[in-house]
Every structure is written in structure tokens, then in C-alpha cells.
């Protein structure tokens, strides 16, 4: 066993001594090959370019556009609901049974049109009684007045006759007003949307099941909820672009109302605008999209968002800059503002007339020759 260990140690020592020698030889061999390759490369270069003129760098083909100022508008879009500017549920003003209904769904009514009537026989009878009493009271008053003018009779008799007549006149006026309330009259011009009343039906004031709905859609009202984060940027008078996807119509209008109350449940406030529909058929509760202009810059440099690149220093674009007779790419750091619909606002780093590289900039390097 001792002999085996002794011979193994001798073999390991010989191998360790010979390893550096073999690696050193391999390195010398590789260096010789490299020198030979360098000689061959130099010979080929002399054959290709015998004058020794430096090869020109190939220019990168790009597209450019001149920077110019224009109007930049920023909008926020919200979904809203359509309603008529006048949308009213007209209920009977007195209790009773319906004796007549004069309209149906789709009927056009004018302001003051009688749409239904409630039983008023008792009121008419009361009115006739009061008329009879008033005739008598008026005759007595005239006679007492004539006698009082001649200083005949007492002042009390004259005053009693006058009071009786005036009281009956007031009572007659009250009954006449009640008779008017027996008629369901449209307070606006528009179209009848629902008629829940039926002849013989018992109704009472304020009941939603007995209200005739009339809508005037000549002017449509669009309301929407807007996040409170825009509260400082949205005000009455802001331009609004209203689109109706179901009918493919667009309108330009202005906000006529912005709420001053933030709903605590969804942190929104209400906005409202109106559009004159003309011949466009709009319906209540139709969906509408409102684009509200919340920012505008009349003199802005605007670029498509994909022209702007990012690195560790920030956002940049490439400008075509002339150098002698050649054009080179110049990396330009910029400061941007808002972006909307694929366009971004450039606030700093760009001047009018500079040539912005719009295509071929993906693998471009600053200082590289370009052609366009």
C-alpha cells in the first residue's frame, strides 16, 4: 500500500510540472497564427484600397418634418344620459274618478292642452248653488246701497249685504279654480310618452301611477358624472363634444352646469350640457359620450407619442442637424406636457423650423450621418 501511494505522488508531480509547459506552447502557437492572419488582412486591405483612403460611413435614410406651432387641446371623456330639457309627469290635482282621457302615447300636445278630466259633478252643482245665492245677495246689496246713499236704513245693514255678496263671489272663484284642477292640463308643448289613466279609474294628487308624462325633446339635456380629480379644470362654459353612437351624430356645445357637490359614494360631481336636436331623433335615456375640453395651448409643438423616446436622463427625440454639406442625427432632450389621442405636447427643447426625424430613428445614434 505504501508503494502505491509513493508512485501516485510521483506521477502527480510530473503532470503538474508538464501542464504549464504544454499551455505555454499552445499560447505561442495561437500568437503565431494571429500574426499570420494580421499579415493576410493587411495584404487584402492594400488590394481593396491601394490609395489608403478612409472608407466613408454609410448614411441612414430617415424621414423628417419641420417643427411648427399649432393648437393643442386636451379632452376628458365621460358617458352621459340623454333627457328632454322639459320632461314632466303631470298628475291630477284633485281626487276622484277619471271621466275622460283625450290623449294617447305619441300624441303631440301644446301648452294648455286638456289631456284628461276628473269627475267634477259635485263641484258644478256647488257652483250653480253659489250662483243662485250670489244673484240674491247682489240684489240685496244693490238695494241696501241705494237706501244707504239716501241715508235710509243703518250702516250695519249695508255692510252685511256687501260682505255677503263679496263672500259669495270669493266662494265662486274658489269653486271655479277647483273645476280647473279637475282637468289634467299639459304645462308644456311636447309629446305624450305614457298615459296610465283609464276612464273610471280612481286617482289622487301626486300619485306616480296616475301621472301623464310629457317630454319636449326639441332641446336635449345630457348629464354625466365626472371624477373630482378634474374639479379645478372643468367649469361652466367649457367646450363639450357630444356624440351619440347609436345614431352616429355629433354636436359641439358648451357646459351649462357644473355641480358644486361631490357625491361621497363615488367621488364625482355632475355636469350638464344641452344640444338643439333639430330633425335628429333623440330619445330619453339614450347613451351619449361627452368630451370636455379641460386644457388648451394655442402655441404648442405637437408630436405623435411614438416619436418620443426615453432613457435614464429623460425623454428625447432626434433632430436632423446640418454639418457642413452633410446631415447628422442630433439627440435632443425635451420636456413634454399633456398627451391626448396619440399626440403629445412638447413644452421645451424644440424651436420652429427644426427638422424632427419621424421615421428611421429606432436604431439611430447621435452624430450618425443621415439622408432624407
Could you explain the architecture of this structure?
- With 372 residues, the protein is α+β, with helices and mostly antiparallel strands.
- Among the domains are: 1-55; 60-72 and 299-371, Beta Barrel (conserved putative lor/sdh protein from methanococcus maripaludis s2 fold), CATH 2.40.420.20; 120-181.
- Helices cover 28% and strands 41% of the residues.
- It contains three helices and 21 strands.
- The strands form three sheets. Strands 1, 2, 15, 16, 17, 20 and 21 form a seven-stranded mixed β-sheet that branches. Strands 3-10-13-12-11-14 form a six-stranded antiparallel barrel.
- β16 and β17 form a beta hairpin.
- α2 runs antiparallel to α3.
- The model is unreliable at 1-15 (pLDDT under 50).
Distance linking N and C termini:
85 Å
> What global shape is seen?
rod-shaped
Helix and strand string, N-terminal first?
HEEEEEEHHEEEEEEEEEEEEEEE
As a percent range, the share of strand residues is: 35-45%
Structure characteristics:
six-stranded antiparallel beta barrel; conserved putative lor/sdh protein from methanococcus maripaludis s2 fold; rod-shaped; alpha+beta; single chain; seven-stranded mixed sheet; 41% strand; 372 residues
Task: Annotate the secondary structure layout.
Elements: H1 2-48, E1 60-61, E2 63-66, E3 69-90, E4 96-101, E5 108-109, E6 114-118, H2 121-149, H3 155-181, E7 183-185, E8 190-194, E9 202-203, E10 212-227, E11 239-244, E12 249-258, E13 268-276, E14 287-304, E15 309-311, E16 314-323, E17 326-333, E18 335-340, E19 343-348, E20 355-359, E21 369-371
Parallel strand pairs: 1-21
Antiparallel strand pairs: 2-20, 3-10, 3-14, 4-6, 4-9, 5-8, 6-7, 8-10, 10-13, 11-12, 11-14, 12-13, 14-19, 15-16, 16-17, 16-20, 17-21, 18-19
Amino acid at each position: 500500500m505504501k508503494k502505491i501511494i509513493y508512485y501516485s505522488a510521483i506521477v502527480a508531480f510530473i503532470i503538474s510540472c508538464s501542464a504549464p509547459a504544454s499551455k505555454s506552447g499552445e499560447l505561442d502557437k495561437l500568437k503565431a497564427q494571429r500574426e499570420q492572419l494580421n499579415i493576410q488582412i493587411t495584404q487584402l486591405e492594400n488590394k481593396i484600397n491601394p490609395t489608403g483612403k478612409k472608407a466613408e460611413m454609410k448614411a441612414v435614410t430617415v424621414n423628417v418634418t419641420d417643427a411648427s406651432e399649432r393648437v393643442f387641446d386636451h379632452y376628458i371623456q365621460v358617458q352621459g344620459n340623454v333627457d328632454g330639457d322639459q320632461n314632466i309627469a303631470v298628475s291630477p290635482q284633485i281626487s276622484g274618478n277619471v271621466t275622460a282621457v283625450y290623449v294617447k302615447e305619441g300624441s303631440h300636445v301644446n301648452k294648455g292642452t286638456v289631456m284628461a278630466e276628473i269627475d267634477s259633478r259635485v263641484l258644478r252643482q256647488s257652483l250653480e248653488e253659489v250662483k243662485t245665492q250670489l244673484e240674491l245677495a247682489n240684489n240685496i246689496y244693490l238695494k241696501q246701497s241705494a237706501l244707504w246713499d239716501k241715508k235710509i236704513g243703518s250702516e250695519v245693514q249695508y255692510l252685511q249685504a256687501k260682505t255677503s255678496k263679496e263672500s259669495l263671489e270669493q266662494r265662486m272663484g274658489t269653486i271655479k279654480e277647483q273645476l280647473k284642477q279637475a282637468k289634467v292640463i299639459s304645462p308644456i308643448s311636447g309629446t305624450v310618452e305614457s298615459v296610465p289613466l283609464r276612464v273610471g279609474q280612481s286617482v289622487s294628487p301626486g300619485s306616480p301611477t296616475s301621472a301623464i308624462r310629457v317630454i319636449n325633446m326639441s332641446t336635449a339635456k345630457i348629464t354625466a358624472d365626472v371624477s373630482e380629480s378634474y374639479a379645478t379644470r372643468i367649469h361652466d362654459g367649457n367646450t363639450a363634444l357630444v356624440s351619440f353612437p347609436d345614431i352616429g351624430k355629433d354636436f359641439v356645445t358648451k357646459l351649462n352646469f357644473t355641480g358644486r357637490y361631490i357625491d361621497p359614494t363615488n367621488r364625482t360631481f355632475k355636469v350638464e350640457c344641452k344640444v338643439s336636436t333639430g330633425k335628429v331623433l333623440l330619445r330619453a335615456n339614450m347613451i351619449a359620450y361627452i368630451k370636455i375640453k379641460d386644457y388648451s395651448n394655442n402655441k404648442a409643438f405637437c408630436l405623435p407619442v411614438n416619436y418620443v423616446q426615453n432613457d435614464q436622463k429623460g425623454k428625447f427625440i432626434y433632430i436632423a442637424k446640418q454639418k457642413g454639406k452633410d446631415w447628422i442625427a442630433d439627440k435632443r432632450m425635451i420636456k413634454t406636457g399633456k398627451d391626448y389621442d396619440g399626440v403629445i405636447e412638447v413644452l421645451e427643447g424644440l424651436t420652429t423650423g427644426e427638422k424632427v426625424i419621424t421615421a428611421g430613428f429606432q436604431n439611430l445614434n447621435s452624430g450618425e450621418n443621415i439622408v432624407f
